[in-house]
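Reader question, answered in our methods column.
A reader sent in the components of a multi-part assembly and asked whether the whole thing could be modeled at once rather than chain by chain. We filled in our standard form and ran it. Here is what they sent:
COMPLEX SIZE: two components
ENTRIES:
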Amino acid sequence: DAGVTQSPTHLIKTRGQQVTLRCSPKSGHDTVSWYQQALGQGPQFIFQYYEEEERQRGNFPDRFSGHQFPNYSSELNVNALLLGDSALYLCASFLGGDKDEQYFGPGTRLTVT
Amino acid sequence: QKEVEQDPGPLSVPEGAIVSLNCTYSNSAFQYFMWYRQYSRKGPELLMYTYSSGNKEDGRFTAQVDKSSKYISLFIRDSQPSDSATYLCAWSGGATNKLIFGTGTLLAVQP
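And here is the structure of the entire assembly that came back:
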């Protein structure tokens, strides 16, 4: 049973560039949430996708956008990268009706120079 | 006031010790409570979850929830060097169940 997978593992970008991160949910899960984790901090909720729609959004600017595909996989896009966007980006998945268990992927470490 | 308060540590204990990790929260709407373990440069791993007050045990781990005091704890018995990691408490509630995390406590178990 494959868990949550994310790609790429690491990424280095320059300020002003755009980046796309990818997530495949755990088998059987239909809901994907994205989180940003700065060094030494807990993950912060970016947004959640369910049935290919953004269902809830955290306190992040419009430079952060996403998409969910019919196979439940998801992308996170960040435009006009800032140095402060450097972080570990985490994807979590769960079954929409199951409120208990949310599983995280290994994350994508983004460095903006 | 932060929604979730967690002592960042670091906490250093000898192998075999009992470890107590604690979090407090302010939002009464929180319904589900979780502990995640995160090794360095890895994604968080779900350790335990609960939605009611009281204790829940799983092997060497016990999660304790006190909703009246808005306080949760994780106890680790017979701690091992492999338990060295950051422990994150998290809450969820509402229709979408977004997770709200504490800052994490860094634990080091010395052999």
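What stands out: The interface with chain A takes residues 4, 6, 8, 31-32, 34, 36, 41-46, 49, 51, 88, 90, 92, 95-104 of chain B (CB under 8 Å). The mean pLDDT of chain B is 89.
Send us your own complexes using the same form.
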